[in-house]
Amino acid sequence: MVTAFIPEPSKSGSCYITRLFVFVLSIRSSTVIGMALLPLLLCLPVAAAETDARIQPWAGNPYYWSYQGKPVLLLGGSSEDNLFQVSGVEDQLGKLGEAGGNYVRCTMSWRDDGNVLQFKKKGDRYDLNEWNPEFWNRFERFLRETATRKIIVQIEVWATFDYYQSRWNINPFNPKNNINYTREESGLPLQVNSHPVQRGNDFFRSVPKAKNLKVVLPYQERFVDKILEHSLKYDHVLYCMDNETSVTPLWGEYWSEFIKQKAAEAGKKVETTEMWDPWKLDHPMHSNTFDHPETYSFIDISQNNHLSGQAHYDNALKQRRRIAKNPRPMNNVKIYGAESRRFGSAKDGIERFWRSIFAGCAAVRFHRPDSGIGCSPKALLMIKSAREVTDAIDITRCTPRPNLLTDRSPNEAYCLSRDKSCYAVLFLDGGDVVLKLEGKATKPKVRWYDVEKSEWRKSKKESLRNQSLRLKTPGKGIWVAIVQMD
Protein backbone atom coordinates (compact mmCIF):
# COMPACT_ATOMS: atom_id res chain seq x y z
CA MET A 1 0.00 0.00 0.00
CA VAL A 2 1.49 3.34 -1.08
CA THR A 3 0.29 6.71 0.18
CA ALA A 4 0.77 9.54 -2.32
CA PHE A 5 -0.01 13.22 -2.03
CA ILE A 6 -1.67 14.62 -5.15
CA PRO A 7 -2.80 18.23 -5.66
CA GLU A 8 -6.52 18.89 -5.86
CA PRO A 9 -8.18 22.20 -6.66
CA SER A 10 -9.89 23.84 -3.70
CA LYS A 11 -11.99 26.98 -3.69
CA SER A 12 -11.25 29.93 -1.44
CA GLY A 13 -13.55 32.89 -2.14
CA SER A 14 -13.44 33.45 -5.90
CA CYS A 15 -9.84 32.22 -6.18
CA TYR A 16 -8.62 28.66 -6.36
CA ILE A 17 -5.72 27.36 -4.30
CA THR A 18 -4.05 23.98 -4.24
CA ARG A 19 -4.28 21.64 -1.29
CA LEU A 20 -3.02 18.12 -0.70
CA PHE A 21 -5.08 15.08 0.02
CA VAL A 22 -4.20 11.44 0.65
CA PHE A 23 -4.58 9.15 -2.33
CA VAL A 24 -4.26 5.45 -1.66
CA LEU A 25 -2.85 3.39 -4.50
CA SER A 26 -3.20 -0.34 -4.22
CA ILE A 27 -0.41 -2.18 -6.01
CA ARG A 28 -0.98 -5.91 -5.85
CA SER A 29 2.37 -6.98 -7.25
CA SER A 30 4.81 -5.22 -4.92
CA THR A 31 5.40 -2.18 -2.77
CA VAL A 32 8.61 -1.49 -4.70
CA ILE A 33 6.67 -0.94 -7.91
CA GLY A 34 4.33 1.36 -6.08
CA MET A 35 7.21 3.43 -4.77
CA ALA A 36 8.70 3.63 -8.27
CA LEU A 37 5.41 4.98 -9.61
CA LEU A 38 5.09 7.62 -6.91
CA PRO A 39 7.27 10.34 -8.57
CA LEU A 40 5.33 9.90 -11.81
CA LEU A 41 2.02 10.28 -10.00
CA LEU A 42 3.17 13.49 -8.40
CA CYS A 43 4.04 14.95 -11.83
CA LEU A 44 0.68 14.16 -13.41
CA PRO A 45 -1.27 17.33 -14.36
CA VAL A 46 -4.39 17.82 -12.29
CA ALA A 47 -7.41 19.54 -13.80
CA ALA A 48 -7.99 22.71 -11.80
CA ALA A 49 -11.27 24.57 -11.75
CA GLU A 50 -10.93 27.83 -13.68
CA THR A 51 -14.28 29.38 -12.91
CA ASP A 52 -13.91 32.94 -11.62
CA ALA A 53 -17.14 33.99 -9.94
CA ARG A 54 -16.55 37.74 -9.99
CA ILE A 55 -18.22 40.18 -12.36
CA GLN A 56 -16.03 40.43 -15.46
CA PRO A 57 -16.26 40.61 -19.28
CA TRP A 58 -17.51 37.29 -20.60
CA ALA A 59 -14.85 35.37 -22.51
CA GLY A 60 -17.48 34.02 -24.92
CA ASN A 61 -18.53 37.54 -25.99
CA PRO A 62 -16.66 40.39 -24.24
CA TYR A 63 -19.38 42.90 -25.15
CA TYR A 64 -21.30 41.33 -22.24
CA TRP A 65 -20.64 40.55 -18.59
CA SER A 66 -20.15 37.25 -16.83
CA TYR A 67 -21.07 36.70 -13.19
CA GLN A 68 -20.62 33.55 -11.14
CA GLY A 69 -19.31 31.87 -14.26
CA LYS A 70 -22.35 32.62 -16.45
CA PRO A 71 -22.98 35.35 -19.07
CA VAL A 72 -25.46 37.96 -17.92
CA LEU A 73 -27.26 41.10 -19.10
CA LEU A 74 -27.49 43.79 -16.42
CA LEU A 75 -30.90 45.47 -16.00
CA GLY A 76 -31.73 47.95 -13.28
CA GLY A 77 -33.34 51.03 -11.79
CA SER A 78 -33.30 52.70 -8.38
CA SER A 79 -34.79 55.61 -6.47
CA GLU A 80 -31.42 57.16 -5.67
CA ASP A 81 -27.85 57.13 -6.90
CA ASN A 82 -26.29 56.81 -3.43
CA LEU A 83 -28.61 53.91 -2.71
CA PHE A 84 -26.64 52.72 0.32
CA GLN A 85 -27.85 55.84 2.16
CA VAL A 86 -31.54 54.99 1.64
CA SER A 87 -33.48 53.73 4.64
CA GLY A 88 -35.24 50.43 3.98
CA VAL A 89 -33.16 49.74 0.88
CA GLU A 90 -33.82 46.02 1.29
CA ASP A 91 -37.42 46.44 0.15
CA GLN A 92 -36.38 48.24 -3.03
CA LEU A 93 -33.70 45.66 -3.79
CA GLY A 94 -36.23 42.90 -3.24
CA LYS A 95 -38.69 44.39 -5.73
CA LEU A 96 -35.91 44.92 -8.26
CA GLY A 97 -34.75 41.32 -7.93
CA GLU A 98 -38.29 39.95 -8.24
CA ALA A 99 -38.67 41.81 -11.54
CA GLY A 100 -35.45 40.31 -12.89
CA GLY A 101 -33.30 43.37 -12.16
CA ASN A 102 -29.67 42.92 -11.20
CA TYR A 103 -27.91 46.29 -11.53
CA VAL A 104 -27.75 49.45 -9.39
CA ARG A 105 -25.63 52.58 -9.11
CA CYS A 106 -23.73 53.59 -5.98
CA THR A 107 -22.26 57.08 -5.85
CA MET A 108 -20.17 57.55 -2.70
CA SER A 109 -22.20 60.64 -1.90
CA TRP A 110 -23.88 62.24 1.11
CA ARG A 111 -25.80 65.04 -0.63
CA ASP A 112 -29.41 64.27 0.38
CA ASP A 113 -31.46 64.86 3.52
CA GLY A 114 -30.99 62.05 6.01
CA ASN A 115 -27.57 61.10 4.65
CA VAL A 116 -24.52 60.77 6.87
CA LEU A 117 -20.93 61.75 6.02
CA GLN A 118 -17.90 59.48 5.96
CA PHE A 119 -15.79 61.29 8.58
CA LYS A 120 -16.32 61.94 12.27
CA LYS A 121 -16.94 65.49 13.36
CA LYS A 122 -15.02 67.05 16.26
CA GLY A 123 -16.74 70.19 17.36
CA ASP A 124 -17.68 72.12 14.24
CA ARG A 125 -15.06 70.50 11.98
CA TYR A 126 -14.22 67.03 10.68
CA ASP A 127 -11.22 64.86 11.43
CA LEU A 128 -10.11 63.14 8.21
CA ASN A 129 -8.30 60.55 10.30
CA GLU A 130 -11.48 59.31 11.97
CA TRP A 131 -14.40 57.57 10.27
CA ASN A 132 -18.07 57.95 10.94
CA PRO A 133 -19.10 54.32 11.60
CA GLU A 134 -22.69 54.86 10.46
CA PHE A 135 -21.64 55.82 6.91
CA TRP A 136 -19.56 52.67 6.53
CA ASN A 137 -22.14 50.46 8.24
CA ARG A 138 -24.69 51.60 5.68
CA PHE A 139 -22.25 50.89 2.85
CA GLU A 140 -21.44 47.43 4.18
CA ARG A 141 -25.12 46.57 4.64
CA PHE A 142 -25.81 47.66 1.07
CA LEU A 143 -22.99 45.53 -0.34
CA ARG A 144 -24.16 42.54 1.69
CA GLU A 145 -27.79 42.89 0.63
CA THR A 146 -26.97 43.32 -3.06
CA ALA A 147 -24.59 40.36 -2.96
CA THR A 148 -27.30 38.18 -1.42
CA ARG A 149 -29.64 39.08 -4.29
CA LYS A 150 -26.94 38.84 -7.00
CA ILE A 151 -27.41 42.51 -7.90
CA ILE A 152 -24.35 44.09 -9.48
CA VAL A 153 -23.19 47.39 -7.94
CA GLN A 154 -21.46 50.07 -10.04
CA ILE A 155 -19.64 52.33 -7.58
CA GLU A 156 -18.72 55.90 -8.48
CA VAL A 157 -15.79 56.67 -6.23
CA TRP A 158 -15.82 60.46 -6.53
CA ALA A 159 -19.29 62.05 -6.58
CA THR A 160 -18.20 65.04 -8.69
CA PHE A 161 -21.00 67.43 -7.75
CA ASP A 162 -20.23 67.08 -4.02
CA TYR A 163 -16.98 68.97 -4.65
CA TYR A 164 -18.39 72.13 -6.24
CA GLN A 165 -20.64 75.07 -5.42
CA SER A 166 -22.80 74.83 -2.27
CA ARG A 167 -21.81 71.25 -1.55
CA TRP A 168 -18.11 72.15 -1.42
CA ASN A 169 -18.98 74.61 1.33
CA ILE A 170 -19.89 71.70 3.63
CA ASN A 171 -17.52 69.06 2.23
CA PRO A 172 -15.11 67.59 4.83
CA PHE A 173 -12.21 67.84 2.35
CA ASN A 174 -12.64 71.63 2.19
CA PRO A 175 -9.82 73.12 4.33
CA LYS A 176 -12.26 75.25 6.32
CA ASN A 177 -14.22 72.15 7.36
CA ASN A 178 -11.47 69.90 8.76
CA ILE A 179 -8.75 70.02 11.42
CA ASN A 180 -6.13 68.33 9.25
CA TYR A 181 -4.88 71.01 6.84
CA THR A 182 -5.24 74.67 5.97
CA ARG A 183 -5.83 76.32 2.65
CA GLU A 184 -2.14 77.21 2.44
CA GLU A 185 -0.95 73.70 3.34
CA SER A 186 -3.34 71.91 1.01
CA GLY A 187 -3.55 74.22 -1.99
CA LEU A 188 -7.33 73.72 -2.05
CA PRO A 189 -9.84 76.57 -2.37
CA LEU A 190 -12.31 77.51 0.34
CA GLN A 191 -15.01 78.30 -2.22
CA VAL A 192 -15.78 76.92 -5.68
CA ASN A 193 -18.71 78.78 -7.19
CA SER A 194 -18.36 77.37 -10.70
CA HIS A 195 -20.00 74.34 -12.29
CA PRO A 196 -17.84 71.16 -12.39
CA VAL A 197 -17.46 71.49 -16.18
CA GLN A 198 -15.23 74.53 -15.52
CA ARG A 199 -12.85 72.39 -13.42
CA GLY A 200 -12.39 75.02 -10.71
CA ASN A 201 -11.35 72.72 -7.86
CA ASP A 202 -7.74 71.57 -7.57
CA PHE A 203 -9.00 68.68 -5.47
CA PHE A 204 -9.06 66.84 -8.80
CA ARG A 205 -5.45 67.76 -9.61
CA SER A 206 -3.87 66.28 -6.50
CA VAL A 207 -2.30 63.26 -8.23
CA PRO A 208 1.47 63.12 -8.85
CA LYS A 209 1.31 63.70 -12.62
CA ALA A 210 -0.87 66.80 -12.13
CA LYS A 211 -0.30 69.27 -9.25
CA ASN A 212 0.93 66.62 -6.81
CA LEU A 213 -0.79 67.95 -3.70
CA LYS A 214 1.16 65.90 -1.17
CA VAL A 215 -0.88 66.99 1.83
CA VAL A 216 -4.26 66.17 0.29
CA LEU A 217 -3.50 62.98 -1.64
CA PRO A 218 -2.91 60.73 1.41
CA TYR A 219 -6.37 61.59 2.73
CA GLN A 220 -7.92 60.87 -0.66
CA GLU A 221 -6.10 57.54 -0.79
CA ARG A 222 -7.26 56.74 2.72
CA PHE A 223 -10.88 57.29 1.66
CA VAL A 224 -10.52 55.01 -1.37
CA ASP A 225 -8.73 52.43 0.79
CA LYS A 226 -11.72 52.44 3.13
CA ILE A 227 -14.12 51.87 0.23
CA LEU A 228 -12.00 48.93 -0.89
CA GLU A 229 -11.76 47.53 2.63
CA HIS A 230 -15.48 46.86 2.32
CA SER A 231 -15.97 46.28 -1.41
CA LEU A 232 -13.07 43.94 -2.15
CA LYS A 233 -14.69 41.31 0.05
CA TYR A 234 -17.36 40.97 -2.62
CA ASP A 235 -17.29 39.82 -6.24
CA HIS A 236 -20.28 41.81 -7.58
CA VAL A 237 -18.76 45.31 -7.70
CA LEU A 238 -17.72 47.46 -10.69
CA TYR A 239 -15.72 50.65 -10.25
CA CYS A 240 -16.29 53.97 -12.02
CA MET A 241 -13.89 56.73 -11.03
CA ASP A 242 -16.22 59.76 -11.29
CA ASN A 243 -19.63 61.07 -12.22
CA GLU A 244 -19.63 63.26 -15.35
CA THR A 245 -16.10 64.54 -14.92
CA SER A 246 -14.33 67.16 -17.04
CA VAL A 247 -10.98 67.13 -15.24
CA THR A 248 -7.59 65.98 -16.46
CA PRO A 249 -7.55 62.31 -17.55
CA LEU A 250 -4.51 61.90 -15.28
CA TRP A 251 -6.92 61.92 -12.33
CA GLY A 252 -9.04 58.96 -13.41
CA GLU A 253 -6.01 57.06 -14.64
CA TYR A 254 -4.38 57.40 -11.22
CA TRP A 255 -7.38 56.08 -9.33
CA SER A 256 -8.03 53.25 -11.77
CA GLU A 257 -4.47 52.01 -11.36
CA PHE A 258 -4.62 52.60 -7.59
CA ILE A 259 -7.76 50.47 -7.25
CA LYS A 260 -6.47 47.71 -9.50
CA GLN A 261 -3.17 47.60 -7.59
CA LYS A 262 -4.92 47.41 -4.21
CA ALA A 263 -7.13 44.64 -5.57
CA ALA A 264 -4.09 42.72 -6.83
CA GLU A 265 -2.46 43.00 -3.42
CA ALA A 266 -5.59 41.40 -1.99
CA GLY A 267 -5.45 38.60 -4.57
CA LYS A 268 -8.33 40.06 -6.56
CA LYS A 269 -9.01 41.49 -9.99
CA VAL A 270 -11.56 44.24 -10.64
CA GLU A 271 -13.08 46.14 -13.58
CA THR A 272 -12.84 49.94 -13.89
CA THR A 273 -14.13 52.78 -16.06
CA GLU A 274 -14.52 56.57 -16.16
CA MET A 275 -17.61 58.66 -16.89
CA TRP A 276 -17.01 61.89 -18.82
CA ASP A 277 -19.28 64.93 -18.93
CA PRO A 278 -19.54 65.75 -22.69
CA TRP A 279 -22.82 64.57 -24.19
CA LYS A 280 -21.18 63.77 -27.50
CA LEU A 281 -19.28 60.49 -27.34
CA ASP A 282 -16.91 61.58 -30.10
CA HIS A 283 -15.58 64.33 -27.81
CA PRO A 284 -11.80 63.84 -27.16
CA MET A 285 -12.44 63.27 -23.45
CA HIS A 286 -14.28 60.03 -24.14
CA SER A 287 -11.27 58.77 -26.09
CA ASN A 288 -9.45 58.37 -22.79
CA THR A 289 -11.80 55.49 -22.03
CA PHE A 290 -12.47 54.09 -25.50
CA ASP A 291 -8.82 54.10 -26.56
CA HIS A 292 -7.23 52.84 -23.35
CA PRO A 293 -8.37 49.30 -22.47
CA GLU A 294 -5.16 48.90 -20.48
CA THR A 295 -6.57 51.48 -18.03
CA TYR A 296 -10.33 50.95 -18.32
CA SER A 297 -11.78 47.48 -18.87
CA PHE A 298 -15.35 48.63 -19.60
CA ILE A 299 -17.07 51.75 -20.92
CA ASP A 300 -19.98 53.73 -19.56
CA ILE A 301 -21.88 55.48 -22.36
CA SER A 302 -24.64 57.02 -20.24
CA GLN A 303 -24.21 60.39 -21.92
CA ASN A 304 -25.46 58.82 -25.14
CA ASN A 305 -28.86 58.82 -23.46
CA HIS A 306 -29.25 62.52 -24.10
CA LEU A 307 -30.00 61.49 -27.70
CA SER A 308 -33.38 60.21 -28.84
CA GLY A 309 -34.88 58.22 -31.68
CA GLN A 310 -32.86 56.66 -34.44
CA ALA A 311 -29.81 58.84 -33.64
CA HIS A 312 -29.65 57.34 -30.14
CA TYR A 313 -29.43 53.79 -31.50
CA ASP A 314 -27.08 54.66 -34.36
CA ASN A 315 -24.63 56.34 -32.01
CA ALA A 316 -24.61 53.41 -29.58
CA LEU A 317 -23.94 51.06 -32.49
CA LYS A 318 -21.15 53.38 -33.67
CA GLN A 319 -19.44 53.04 -30.29
CA ARG A 320 -19.78 49.26 -30.41
CA ARG A 321 -18.00 49.23 -33.76
CA ARG A 322 -15.42 51.63 -32.36
CA ILE A 323 -14.19 48.99 -29.90
CA ALA A 324 -14.58 46.00 -32.24
CA LYS A 325 -10.85 45.22 -32.17
CA ASN A 326 -10.90 45.13 -28.39
CA PRO A 327 -14.50 44.41 -27.32
CA ARG A 328 -15.56 45.48 -23.83
CA PRO A 329 -18.91 45.83 -22.09
CA MET A 330 -20.74 49.11 -22.68
CA ASN A 331 -22.82 50.14 -19.66
CA ASN A 332 -25.62 52.69 -19.33
CA VAL A 333 -25.84 53.36 -15.60
CA LYS A 334 -28.12 56.32 -16.36
CA ILE A 335 -31.08 56.04 -18.73
CA TYR A 336 -32.57 59.55 -18.82
CA GLY A 337 -36.23 60.43 -19.40
CA ALA A 338 -38.78 61.21 -16.69
CA GLU A 339 -42.33 62.31 -15.99
CA SER A 340 -40.82 65.74 -15.28
CA ARG A 341 -39.60 65.70 -18.90
CA ARG A 342 -36.10 66.53 -17.69
CA PHE A 343 -33.72 65.20 -20.36
CA GLY A 344 -36.72 63.77 -22.18
CA SER A 345 -40.09 62.28 -21.33
CA ALA A 346 -40.71 58.96 -19.57
CA LYS A 347 -41.54 57.55 -23.01
CA ASP A 348 -38.11 58.68 -24.22
CA GLY A 349 -36.52 56.92 -21.27
CA ILE A 350 -38.32 53.65 -21.96
CA GLU A 351 -37.36 53.79 -25.63
CA ARG A 352 -33.73 54.51 -24.73
CA PHE A 353 -33.76 51.53 -22.38
CA TRP A 354 -34.95 49.15 -25.11
CA ARG A 355 -32.82 50.61 -27.90
CA SER A 356 -29.70 50.28 -25.75
CA ILE A 357 -30.45 46.59 -25.22
CA PHE A 358 -30.99 46.03 -28.95
CA ALA A 359 -27.78 47.98 -29.74
CA GLY A 360 -25.85 45.31 -27.85
CA CYS A 361 -25.16 47.18 -24.62
CA ALA A 362 -24.17 45.16 -21.56
CA ALA A 363 -26.05 47.11 -18.89
CA VAL A 364 -29.01 49.51 -18.67
CA ARG A 365 -30.41 51.25 -15.59
CA PHE A 366 -33.24 53.75 -15.28
CA HIS A 367 -31.95 56.97 -13.70
CA ARG A 368 -33.33 58.35 -10.42
CA PRO A 369 -36.88 59.81 -10.55
CA ASP A 370 -36.04 63.49 -11.07
CA SER A 371 -34.55 62.65 -14.48
CA GLY A 372 -35.48 58.99 -15.00
CA ILE A 373 -38.21 56.55 -13.97
CA GLY A 374 -36.10 54.99 -11.21
CA CYS A 375 -37.53 51.87 -9.64
CA SER A 376 -41.16 52.82 -10.28
CA PRO A 377 -43.81 50.21 -11.16
CA LYS A 378 -43.37 51.18 -14.82
CA ALA A 379 -39.61 50.66 -14.59
CA LEU A 380 -40.06 47.28 -12.91
CA LEU A 381 -42.52 46.25 -15.64
CA MET A 382 -40.00 47.16 -18.35
CA ILE A 383 -37.24 45.27 -16.52
CA LYS A 384 -39.44 42.18 -16.17
CA SER A 385 -40.32 42.26 -19.87
CA ALA A 386 -36.73 42.84 -20.91
CA ARG A 387 -35.56 39.91 -18.82
CA GLU A 388 -38.13 37.55 -20.34
CA VAL A 389 -37.36 38.62 -23.90
CA THR A 390 -33.57 38.57 -23.57
CA ASP A 391 -33.58 35.21 -21.80
CA ALA A 392 -35.72 33.79 -24.61
CA ILE A 393 -33.12 34.69 -27.24
CA ASP A 394 -29.98 34.19 -25.10
CA ILE A 395 -28.97 37.78 -25.79
CA THR A 396 -25.32 37.43 -24.77
CA ARG A 397 -24.87 35.34 -27.92
CA CYS A 398 -26.64 37.84 -30.15
CA THR A 399 -25.43 40.59 -32.48
CA PRO A 400 -27.27 43.78 -33.52
CA ARG A 401 -28.33 43.39 -37.17
CA PRO A 402 -30.20 46.50 -38.37
CA ASN A 403 -29.28 45.62 -41.96
CA LEU A 404 -31.69 42.66 -41.87
CA LEU A 405 -34.74 44.95 -41.71
CA THR A 406 -36.32 46.61 -44.74
CA ASP A 407 -39.51 48.54 -45.37
CA ARG A 408 -39.00 50.30 -42.05
CA SER A 409 -39.25 53.92 -40.96
CA PRO A 410 -36.65 55.57 -38.70
CA ASN A 411 -37.01 54.38 -35.10
CA GLU A 412 -39.72 51.89 -36.07
CA ALA A 413 -37.94 48.57 -35.44
CA TYR A 414 -34.59 47.10 -34.37
CA CYS A 415 -33.11 43.64 -34.83
CA LEU A 416 -30.84 41.17 -33.02
CA SER A 417 -29.65 37.87 -34.51
CA ARG A 418 -28.24 34.72 -32.91
CA ASP A 419 -26.28 32.35 -35.12
CA LYS A 420 -28.71 32.76 -38.04
CA SER A 421 -31.11 30.53 -36.09
CA CYS A 422 -32.99 33.03 -33.96
CA TYR A 423 -33.96 36.68 -34.39
CA ALA A 424 -35.56 39.29 -32.16
CA VAL A 425 -37.25 42.35 -33.63
CA LEU A 426 -38.23 45.24 -31.38
CA PHE A 427 -41.10 47.58 -32.30
CA LEU A 428 -41.40 50.74 -30.20
CA ASP A 429 -44.94 51.70 -31.25
CA GLY A 430 -46.34 48.98 -33.42
CA GLY A 431 -45.17 48.59 -36.99
CA ASP A 432 -44.82 46.52 -40.13
CA VAL A 433 -41.37 45.57 -41.49
CA VAL A 434 -39.66 42.87 -43.53
CA LEU A 435 -37.01 40.65 -41.90
CA LYS A 436 -34.41 39.05 -44.15
CA LEU A 437 -33.57 35.58 -42.80
CA GLU A 438 -30.04 34.26 -43.21
CA GLY A 439 -30.74 30.66 -42.25
CA LYS A 440 -32.70 28.32 -44.47
CA ALA A 441 -36.24 27.54 -43.34
CA THR A 442 -39.63 26.93 -44.89
CA LYS A 443 -41.93 28.06 -42.09
CA PRO A 444 -40.15 29.87 -39.24
CA LYS A 445 -41.95 30.04 -35.91
CA VAL A 446 -42.89 33.52 -34.65
CA ARG A 447 -43.74 34.42 -31.06
CA TRP A 448 -44.94 37.87 -30.10
CA TYR A 449 -44.27 39.48 -26.73
CA ASP A 450 -46.44 42.32 -25.49
CA VAL A 451 -43.92 44.39 -23.53
CA GLU A 452 -46.43 46.65 -21.80
CA LYS A 453 -48.42 43.67 -20.52
CA SER A 454 -45.39 41.43 -19.91
CA GLU A 455 -47.02 38.48 -21.67
CA TRP A 456 -46.44 36.16 -24.61
CA ARG A 457 -48.83 35.56 -27.47
CA LYS A 458 -49.19 32.09 -28.92
CA SER A 459 -46.54 31.23 -31.50
CA LYS A 460 -47.43 30.46 -35.08
CA LYS A 461 -45.63 29.45 -38.23
CA GLU A 462 -45.26 32.04 -40.96
CA SER A 463 -44.69 31.68 -44.69
CA LEU A 464 -41.55 33.00 -46.38
CA ARG A 465 -41.04 34.79 -49.65
CA ASN A 466 -37.46 34.84 -50.99
CA GLN A 467 -36.16 34.09 -47.47
CA SER A 468 -37.90 37.21 -46.20
CA LEU A 469 -40.58 37.42 -43.53
CA ARG A 470 -43.07 40.22 -43.09
CA LEU A 471 -43.67 41.08 -39.44
CA LYS A 472 -46.68 43.12 -38.42
CA THR A 473 -47.36 43.77 -34.75
CA PRO A 474 -50.65 42.56 -33.25
CA GLY A 475 -51.34 46.12 -32.09
CA LYS A 476 -49.84 49.46 -31.11
CA GLY A 477 -47.33 49.89 -28.30
CA ILE A 478 -44.04 48.09 -27.64
CA TRP A 479 -43.72 44.58 -29.07
CA VAL A 480 -40.93 42.08 -29.65
CA ALA A 481 -41.12 39.33 -32.25
CA ILE A 482 -39.00 36.25 -31.62
CA VAL A 483 -38.37 34.38 -34.87
CA GLN A 484 -36.96 30.87 -34.64
CA MET A 485 -35.90 28.73 -37.56
CA ASP A 486 -37.08 25.16 -38.10
Topology:
Elements: E1 2-12, E2 15-25, H1 31-43, E3 56-57, E4 65-67, E5 70-72, E6 74-77, H2 89-98, E7 103-107, E8 119-122, E9 125-131, H3 133-148, E10 152-158, H4 165-169, H5 183-186, H6 217-231, E11 237-242, H7 249-265, E12 272-273, H8 284-290, E13 299-300, H9 309-322, E14 330-335, H10 346-358, E15 363-366, H11 377-393, E16 399-400, E17 405-406, E18 413-418, E19 422-427, E20 432-436, E21 445-450, E22 455-456, E23 460-461, E24 468-472, E25 479-484
Parallel strand pairs: 6-15, 7-10, 10-11, 11-12, 13-14, 14-15
Antiparallel strand pairs: 1-2, 3-4, 4-5, 8-9, 16-18, 17-20, 18-19, 19-25, 20-24, 21-22, 21-23, 21-25
Helix pairs in contact: 9-10
Give an account of the 3D structure.
With 486 residues, this protein is of the alpha/beta class. It folds into three domains: 2-43, no CATH class; 56-396, Alpha-Beta Barrel (TIM Barrel), CATH 3.20.20; 401-484, Golgi alpha-mannosidase II (Immunoglobulin-like, Sandwich). It has helices at 31-43, 89-98, 133-148, 165-169, 183-186, 217-231, 249-265, 284-290, 309-322, 346-358, 377-393; strands spanning 2-12, 15-25, 56-57, 65-67, 70-72, 74-77, 103-107, 119-122, 125-131, 152-158, 237-242, 272-273, 299-300, 330-335, 363-366, 399-400, 405-406, 413-418, 422-427, 432-436, 445-450, 455-456, 460-461, 468-472, 479-484. Strand 8 and strand 9 form a beta hairpin. It is elongated. The N and C termini lie far apart (59 Å). The relative contact order is 0.09.
